[in-house]
Amino acid sequence: MTTSRPNSRPTSRPTGSTAPGLLRDTRVYLSGPMDFVASRAEEKAHGWRNRVGEFLREFEVTVFDPFVKPEVRGLFEYGREGASTDEDRERWSFARTQEAARARAWCAHKYYATQHIDLRMVDTSDFVICYCPTNIYSVGTPHEIIVARNEHKPVLFVSPPINCPSLDELHAHLRGRGDDEGDRLLDQVEQEAPIKPNERGIPSLWYMPLIGENNFFDGFGFAPYRERFGWERIALDDHEDGRTIENPLLPFLEELDVRLPDRYSARERRSVPDDDWILWQLDGHAKGSQITDVAAAEVRDGPPPHE
Questions:
Q1: pLDDT value of residue 229
Q2: Within this chain, do residues 17 and 62 fall inside the same structural domain, yes or no?
């Protein structure tokens, strides 16, 4: 894999340094498809969230992962999901009967808690990282993105190129054997699925004004960090290796710990500070303290006074 960003950029806190970076004590939510991935269990055990989470924890970031939900005080196992949702899906029915209505109500009640806690994690995050390949159906991911953007939180949107090399190989194999009927059926499968390559990873145009022009990435850029973190090879590495990643996410995060990004202002026709990056400076606050002056970051201990 090659990238257009330098891979030797230093981190904000070299070994032995105690200086805090900009990401210290921030919170991030990791959004992306869960249900319609190739294997939900594999995604939970070895998916991109594990690597990005490990990477960000080195910068003392609190990572919210919907596969590993935090404990909720007083609500044991609230909103927890298993590795598979197949059994719950089997309860579903479109029939207009009392039994089917009860089954739908059961699904809605159970997954309300899941939706509730995931959106609360978005609410309490400072920014969101979203992996949104154009070939995987997802509903929760756009919902989470919209919640974050309605709150003017940055969403870092990874949209990788989508290629189907095995499909091309199968076409070539069938044609090489003179199997016209097999080739025709494969064409039909492509239409029915549908299977649609996206060689540049261009996201839906609807996302562009929603996310903002500065926060799109065409890959994670895992390769330069694999040895350092001891990451075992996964399918995503095969997808990233052998191509140039123009704007990889991980070097951006490394730089973000040192300096907040700018955004391009179409009105001013120049780069300006991106004021969506509001990261609180709350160091040294005593327990139970109250912020009285955000600008001066002063605190007053104890409960707020009565008006």
A1: 94
A2: yes
